[in-house]
Amino acid sequence: MTEHQFDASGAAGGEAFDFPGLCDELRCHSTESVTAIREEAVREQRRWRLRELAATRVLDERGRIDDRLAGRDGVSIREVRQTVATARALEALPSIAQVAAEGRLSDAQLAQVVKVADASDEHEWAQRAPGWSAADLAQKARELRTPTIEDARARRAARELRWWWNQDQGMLHLRGALPDVDGATFELVVKQMIEGRKPAPGQAWEPWERRAADALMDLVHAYRERRTDETTSVPGAHLVVQVPLSGPATVVGIPLPDAMVEKLRASARIEPHLVDAQGATVAIGRTESVFTAKAKRAILMRDGKCRIGGCDVRGPLDVHHLVPRSWGGTDRIDNGAAVCTGSGRHHEMLVPHGPYLLLGNPNQPDGLELVHIDDLPALAALASQPGNRGARASPDAA
């Protein structure tokens, strides 16, 4: 047995594996030798991983791979499905498979690079991927995937906030999850509040976590003490939305469907950043609210309640673009109407979030009609009514 070789086969055939004995054996080697042994073991693991993936691909073709494999292998169903997806992708990516077989890609890197590369650029990614972290490759994969409004809805459906009391400590514990835009807005506002909580002269700074808790309670107290006034417009958050030359816009690195960006334009203050292929800012757009505070007050005062037929909800209300800005709609008062907002409320069923349009003349109590976007005859008939022409978008609306 040479300096770089040792016998680790004691576990074969059910024999006891002497791990302490193996450690003692390695302690007799130099540090350089142990390092080389470890590196060789890692390479060998990764070569065997390729053999496992090849076997998985063949068994998958024969219909012999399903979620039950997770129980047999002692892994999660998610890991089994990821293994199958990696095996399927690798068959068309020989350069990446070669690099993985050489031991230059970890399992985590390999699972992500197959989502990024295709037959046209896999040779390039075979060279680049070993230098990328698995997290960076995963982010690149997210950026390349065009999100759908269904993806955004699924993230929103997963939102939660839970709390429970530890009675012995007298403490309320919180746990929650917020999707894309909600999470970015929460982070933006709370960080600004934390940074603004400076100590009194001569006093030490409170830890960041305590200032975060204080900021959250500031929000609670502000809501509790705020007078309920349906005619008051509350400015939305000022978010930076990155708009690449190609691909989806992002907020805090999370790709957004176009409809989500339209929703931001209607309800928040956004600062669009045009970025190049490397993510560097090329130009910064103008920050503005789509509806001005005065326009919102006028619309909410005019309507007083949700304008969906049969709905008497008087709050909370939001101002909805009858014709979305991305469709050429204007920011005029006659292109806005109050609709109830919040979980399960009517704002979510209207374009660009849902399949319905609220169209007509909002200045008339009975002037609005709910129309499905696929009901072309109804849309044409509604657009032809003289009383509704004033509420339609003008050519210069964009």
Description of the molecule:
The structure is a single chain. The chain is of the alpha+beta class and 398 residues long. The chain has four domains: 12-144, no CATH class; 160-225, no CATH class; 238-284, no CATH class; 293-391, no CATH class. Helices cover 42% and strands 14% of the residues. The protein contains 14 helices and eleven strands. Strands 3-6-7 form a three-stranded mixed β-sheet. The chain has a two-stranded antiparallel ribbon with strand order 1-2. Helix 5 runs parallel beside helix 7, helix 6 runs parallel beside helix 8 (134-144) and helix 10 packs across helix 11 (208-225). It is extended.
Itemize the secondary structure elements and their pairings.
Elements: H1 19-26, H2 31-61, H3 68-73, H4 77-90, H5 94-101, H6 107-116, H7 122-128, H8 134-144, H9 149-157, E1 160-166, E2 171-177, H10 180-196, H11 208-225, E3 238-244, E4 250-251, E5 254-255, H12 258-267, E6 269-275, E7 281-284, H13 293-303, E8 317-321, E9 336-340, E10 356-360, E11 368-372, H14 376-384
Parallel strand pairs: 3-6
Antiparallel strand pairs: 1-2, 4-5, 6-7, 8-9, 10-11
Give a quick account of the main beta sheet: strands, pairing sense, barrel closure: 3 strands, mixed
Report strand order across the widest sheet: 3-6-7
Which class do the helix and strand fractions yield? alpha+beta
Rg of Cα set: 29 Å
* Helicity range: 40-55%
Count of spatially separate domains? 4
The pLDDT mean sits at 81
Task: Give the H and E element order.
Answer: HHHHHHHHHEEHHEEEHEEHEEEEH
In terms of per-residue confidence, which ranges show pLDDT below 50 for 5 or more consecutive residues? 227-237, 387-398
Strand content: 5-15%
Shape, per Cα inertia axes: extended
